[in-house]
Design brief:
Layout (H helix, E strand, L loop, with lengths): L3 E3 L6 E2 L2 E2 L4 H36 L3 H4 L1 H20 L5 H21 L3 H22 L3 H4 L5 H29 L2 H22 L8 E3 L10 H21 L2 H8 L4 H26 L3 H22 L3 H15 L2 H12 L4 H29 L4 H20 L13 H7 L15
Antiparallel strand pairs: 1-4, 2-3
Keywords: Cell membrane, Membrane, Transmembrane, Transmembrane helix
Subcellular location: Cell membrane
Pfam family, one: MFS_1
Length: 433
């Protein structure tokens, strides 16, 4: 089938026949998916810590090197909905394993790239992998664990994003500083293959069951709650990556941080991000709007203060920790908002979310690069903080519109599992809180 997007099957089922799985094996599958999200996000973010090294080695400016972030984001935005339709009724376990294999190839090609053009070609493959993995993994928890544990499993899956910041990017930066930036990409190629093997062993069969036509996906924009969530995501993530992509040049230029300390500061950022992911995960499923208001306020403050209070290493370190703590909760909270807004079209809504998120990544990296090259490196912080303020205003002013949950009488996971279809933006979606 090439013209439809599938809804996920109930937890513990394969097609129409129940599958009995031990709790240990179910949670090992969740961990495998979490390591998969860690791998794709680490690969996507790796140029952040290696930007200077890549630019110097391949003879391009910092702004041009930032295209290594822009390209995979744009490709992922296109790949998410297209792959969701193209894979049709293929077992999602096989699709995930194939995407991780593609990620390994992309990382190996990046490690061997003789010039910047080849590197960008490899980053195209990275974008395909990101779009596919994110669109499937985002709503997969309900199929791997009992419904009562799906919220915790979703938080764990998205912890891979925060762990990518605390381990992936800093370790990749450290490898680049101590050995060579190419070795960092080679290491990710090995990890991607290992994750593909782990998924093949731990994931149960994940065939598609219910369907919703791909041409109906744009109709999801009629869902007020979903539309607000997507606009908010676009603003916040564009601003974040407009600033974060160039955080290394900012630390070097504004705070005078030495090369050897960059990886340590990024490590502190990542540790805070992991804490933020789990802190947000405890409240996001109950109060997504309030959680986002707190997150956005902290992000705006941290980014806007870097040019002012980040002129010293200590000041920059404190602001990076606050930044990491806040951004660590963005993915799980925004994804939760999206799944609550469209409980009967979870995979389609996730594909839209992935598309918007990755457009925002590439747009942020592109606009941040223009600000860094055309104005000043520290200008990326004003850009990022300004969009964070707009995201905060959007969710604070309009976030109460629509509904925060599924139609009455149906839990979000039951609705997703039923294979039924509620017209996006219909009466069931427009209940005042």
């Amino acid at each position: 089938m090439t013209s439809s997007t599938e809804l996920t099957a109930p937890a513990g089922t394969s097609g129409s026949s129940p599958v009995v799985r031990s709790p240990l094996r179910s949670w090992l599958a969740v961990v495998a998916v979490a390591v998969g999200t860690f791998s794709v996000v680490t690969t996507e973010m790796l140029p952040v810590g290696l930007l200077t090294s890549i630019g110097n080695a391949l003879h391009v400016s910092a702004g041009t090197a930032g295209l290594a972030m822009t390209v995979p984001g744009l490709i992922a935005a296109l790949a998410a909905p297209l792959l969701t339709a193209t894979v049709g009724r293929f077992d999602r376990r096989l699709v995930l394993c194939g995407l991780m294999g593609l990620l390994a190839v992309a990382n190996l090609l990046s490690a061997l790239a003789p010039g910047f053009t080849v590197l960008l070609s490899a980053r195209v493959l990275v974008g395909v992998s990101i779009g596919g993995v994110w669109s499937i993994a985002g709503g997969l928890a309900v199929r791997l664990v009992p419904e009562r544990s799906a919220g915790h499993a979703t938080t764990l899956i998205f912890s891979g994003i925060a762990v990518a910041s605390v381990l992936g990017v800093p370790i990749g930066t450290l490898i680049g500083d101590l050995v060579h930036w190419r070795v960092a990409f080679a290491a990710m190629a090995v990890l991607s293959l290992a994750v593909a093997a782990a998924m093949a062993v731990t994931l149960p069969p994940l065939p598609a069951t219910g369907t919703v036509r791909l041409r109906e996906v744009p109709g999801l924009f009629r869902n007020v709650r979903l539309r607000i969530g997507l606009i908010t995501t676009l603003l916040l993530v564009t601003g974040h990556f407009g600033a974060y992509t160039y955080v290394r040049p900012v630390l070097e230029d504004v705070a005078g941080v030495g090369t050897g300390l960059i990886s340590t500061l990024l490590l502190a950022y990542g540790v805070a991000g992991i804490a933020g992911n789990f802190l947000a995960g405890t409240t996001a499923h109950r109060e997504p709007r309030r959680t986002l208001v707190v997150i956005f306020a902290l992000l705006a403050a941290a980014e806007l203060l870097v040019p002012v209070a980040g002129a010293t290493t200590a000041g920059a370190a404190v602001l990076l920790v606050v930044w990491g703590l806040a951004y660590g909760g963005v993915s799980v909270t925004c994804q939760t908002w999206v799944l609550h807004a469209a409980p009967d079209a979870r995979e389609a809504a996730s594909a839209l979310y992935v598309g918007v998120f990755n457009v925002a990544i590439s747009l942020g990296a592109l606009l941040g690069g223009r600000a860094a090259d055309g104005i000043a490196v520290r200008g990326v912080m004003w850009f990022g903080g300004g969009l964070a303020v707009l995201a905060l205003a959007n969710v604070a002013l309009f976030g109460r519109r629509g509904t925060a949950g599924p139609p009455a009488g149906r839990g979000p996971h039951q609705a997703a599992a039923s294979g039924g279809h509620v017209r996006p933006g219909g009466p069931g979606d427009q209940v005042r809180p």
